[in-house]
Every structure is written in structure tokens, then in C-alpha cells.
Design brief:
Shape: globular
Low-confidence stretches: 115-123
Number of domains: 1
Strand content: 5-15%
CATH topology: Rossmann fold
Structural class: alpha/beta
CATH class: Alpha Beta
Largest sheet: 4 strands, parallel
Radius of gyration: 14 Å
CATH architecture: 3-Layer(aba) Sandwich
Length: about 120
């Protein structure tokens, strides 16, 4: 299973929402390709509406357990990924566990979305 790491925390709620949607689009595209994927952002963002915090300090225990269960980490290269404490820690933990870490550029995401749209319209 792929663990989809992507930045989330930001003081601007509009940017957090954009990052959430990008993580969801990417997870959906990977699932359409037949790949198993878990996105902690797709899972946790809706839960923040119920009073849970959005920061790494709160989620690190849960994310570590999920990283243990995944086979690899795919880092979504959204703006801010290099500055994200959570993404840096997810990469560090994955490497500590001996898991492969790969990177997905947003340009590749656009290609995947375009291919998916073509496949859907051809069906």
C-alpha cells in the first residue's frame, strides 16, 4: 500500500483546503490505476471540523502506525512540501523503517488526471 505524504498545515484555510483537494485528487487517480493508497490528509482534514488539531504533533503517533503498515511512501510535491514538518518527518520515519520514498510532481498528477478523463470518456 502507498502512503501518500503531502503538506497540509498552513495559516490560510484556503491553502489547507487546496492541499486537501490535491491529496484527494491524487489518491483518486492512484486508485483508478488500481493501486492501493492511503492519504492521511484525505482522512484527517474532515476530522478537523470536529475539533481535532491539524498539526503534526497530534497526528504523529497515528501516522507512524500507518507508515508501518504501508509498503512505500509517495510524496506529493505541492508548494510547501519541503517546509512541511509532517512531510519531512514522514520521509524520515519511512527511511528509518527501510521503506522506499518516491516523489510525484504536480505536473505528473495533471498527466494522470488527463489520462483518467480520456479513459472515462472512451468508456
Amino acid at each position: 500500500m502507498i502512503y501518500l505524504a503531502s503538506p497540509y498545515s498552513h495559516p490560510d484555510p484556503v491553502i489547507r483546503e487546496e492541499r486537501y483537494r490535491a491529496a484527494c485528487r491524487t489518491a483518486a487517480a492512484l486508485l483508478r490505476e488500481g493501486r492501493s493508497v492511503f492519504s492521511p490528509i484525505a482522512h484527517s482534514h474532515p476530522l478537523t471540523e470536529y475539533g481535532l488539531p491539524a498539526d503534526w504533533t497530534f497526528w504523529k503517533h497515528c501516522d507512524r502506525e500507518l507508515l508501518e503498515r504501508c509498503d512505500e511512501v509517495l510524496v506529493l510535491l505541492l508548494d510547501g512540501w519541503k517546509d512541511s514538518v509532517g512531510v519531512r518527518e514522514e520521509i524520515r520515519i519511512a527511511r528509518e523503517m527501510g521503506k522506499p520514498v518516491r516523489y510525484l510532481d504536480i505536473a505528473r498528477l495533471v498527466e494522470v488526471r488527463a489520462m483518467s478523463a480520456v479513459q472515462v470518456s472512451a468508456s
